[in-house]
Amino acid sequence: MIKCILFILIFMIAVFLLSGCETSSGPSGSGGTAVTHNWYYLIQGYYLMSVKFANANTAYAVGVDGIILKTTNGGNTWLPQNSGTLNQLSAVSFSDANTGTIVGASGTILRTTDGGVNWTAQTSGTTNGLLGVSFTDANNGTAVGASGTILRTTNGGTNWTAQTSGTGEYLQDVCFTDANNGIAVGSFGTIIRTTNGGTNWITQTSGTTNHLFGVSFTNANNGTVVGFSGTILRTTNGGTNWTAQTSGTSNHLTGVSFTDENNGTAVGLMSTILRTTNGGATWIAQPIGIVTDLFKVSFANANNGIAVGFNGTVLTTTNGGSDWTEKPASGTANRLYSVCFVDVNNATAVGVNGTIIHTTNGGTIWTAQSSGTTNDLFDVTFTDVNTGTVVGASGTILRTTNGGSTWTTQTSGTTSYLRGVSFTDANTGTAVGASGTILRTTNGGNTWIAQSSGTTYYLYGVSFTDANKGTVVGGSTILRTTNGGSTWTTQTNGTTSYLCGVSFTDANNGTAVGTSGTILHTTNGGATWTAQTSGTVSDLYGVSFADNINGTAVGDQGVILQTTDGGNTWNSKTDGMSYVLWKVSFVNKEKGIAVGDRGVIWLYK
Question: How many CB atoms lie within 10 A of CB 411?
Fold first, then answer.
């Protein structure tokens, strides 16, 4: 039982940021100069468990739900990679910018030889959780984990061989300085040493029973170990003797990185970062200005480092930690169903369990708002920075007039799930949902009146261009009104696909998207709908046009489609993680946001 509790504790503790992904050239700037616009990935609210520099600029971070992130500019921007697993990934080691190994839960081992373009699962021969990994070159590596597990490879992971560790404790981290010399650390002060590539592991006397979580050696003799209650241990003779150093903190330390015998950094819980420039003779606390738990740290040299941790926290420094810069995160790992960009600075996203997050700086930083409900929220619309409406499960309608500082529940008069909402001004709006439900308000939601849709289809999307003219989609149905919903007319659309999203830029020009890559376009208010070639069979759930020619659609498998010619051609990209994207919102042709599963947020700018 003690070990079970410890295992859970260890995983809790050991358990965008923007990343540029150039996809297309955007609109022309002044004088006809092409302006490149990119999609940027924002780290969602996941635990990031480990980070490792592969060279001076390239680093990789890994975490829960199989997340892998890569930077090629020292941590300023990051790109997600597809791991092919949802298992927690606990540690990463690269021998060069392209060749690396990741380990994680249930014996997971992943390998890449192309910088993460492709990750291949390897056979570990164990179902024990793997918590640490160290490679000294492309072939020679060691992984450690639960119940004293040690695995060794001499051929880049083609074969992994179990070694006898001599302990049943959880091994949290491992560091090799060459193919032969390595140290592993773990629970209850465990330190074990090998000088022959793991053929024999010898227990060393640590002098502590505190759990040890991080180890860093700069050569076969000089190393530092960190752990619970501010523990820092130092050796200059390969671990024959370990000396306790004064950390100045009782916070748990979870990671450590030295770039030479003198310069090192340790991180831990409660925003702890400690720095030494004299081999640990003195450790100085470095402030970071935020409250978070940090799990691991990696330095490329004495100045450039990255620390990662709780809720997607990423910190970078270029001056040895004198200053640490936080990289933005969405602050949630919840599914986000919808987003509304009201101007270039202000946007709101909503999702499961009453999630509402808000940005006032164009999507770089998001702050959670209190919705007052645990119902799933499916759509959001704002008419100005203050006035907005959210709809959701069980007839939920929420209203704000102060930018989301407070949200007030309105009486919808229905228990049907509401999936779409559109307002054309502060007072006039329409909500749609299950069983053909259409609701209308002309007083900002003080009263909602049911309208007759003439269908029992589940209605998913609605778009009004003025108080009278609007279009609703759901099932294979498209409904149109020109009198504010007093009457709704079914339009012929020529598809049997389910339609999930719709966007009109004026009374005539609109686009609807749906399952199996369906895209329909109209230039006459829906009198005729024309199928467009999307180039994908993925289901499309959301669409947003900034004007009559510039539009974006998102959907299953992280697909993002963009057009700059009204849909005559659609260019495709995927988000690198294959998570569903549910909605997209563009405030103009140069700035947009897409949201989806696991708190995924993509920014276009």
Answer: 11
